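Lab notebook, entry 236. We have the chain sequence and a SMILES string for fe (ii) ion, and the next step in the workflow is to get a structural model of the bound complex before anyone spends time on docking refinements. Request logged below.

Task: model protein plus fe (ii) ion, output structure tokens.
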Amino acid sequence: MLETSSTRRKFLRQTSIAGAGLLAPLAVAQQKPADADKAKGDEGISPAEDLMREHGVLNRILLIYDEHLRMLADKRPFDGSVLVSAADIVRHFVEEYHEKLEEEFLFPRFRKAGKLVGLVDTLQAQHKAGRDLTAKIRELAAVATLKYVSSDSDKLADALRAFLHMYRPHEAREDTVLFPAFRSIVSPHEYDALGDDFEKKEDQLFGDEGFFKVVDQVAQLEKKLGIYELAQFTPK
Ligand SMILES: [Fe+2]
Ligand SMILES: [Fe+2]
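Result returned:
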């Protein structure tokens, strides 16, 4: 079964090359050399692992938002372009890709199975609320470059806080309740095939191994903010 999945993934990867880049909103669609698979491996990850590591990207964006909230509270001037870039990653990677996967592949199956329907309704409503907040954050970050005593700064802080307040429980509930339950409502074959579909979509939108390119973009933003070095968070 693994060999079949792997072969199919490679085929999908090759056929998606022509389309890769057309929709790449983050300029992450450059193709890597053919032998790069050897370095990263042909992943063959499950839908849940795929979605959960995307939550890891979202969590790192939330840390970037946290840092901006601290700068706003301290009235420290900052370069709004980092926040604009972070909001753009939320828009293109989280909202237009990750949440679309949940909405197209997971939510309808739960509704059809009559399972966790209330939870799914809430998650879907939160996706919509998240998109509204991202639009607000992006707009305010673009104009609020450093007018730290202004009503815009208060509005920006409110929007960042509301985003953090909603997304931490949102993704924690998906990780601990929705994704574990997903396995029980689809057949093993369908579960495996969905893993392939998710990878195909990721390749189409962000280029081959696009996940790692997005992680790298987030790391660059963390470096600009001085929150990249992990050891700084270890208690002294
Ligand atoms: Fe979600
Ligand atoms: Fe999610």
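Notes for the group: The pocket of fe (ii) ion (ligand 1) is lined by residues 99, 102, 123, 127, 170, 174 (CB under 6 Å). Worth checking against the assay data. The chain is about 75% helix and 0% strand.
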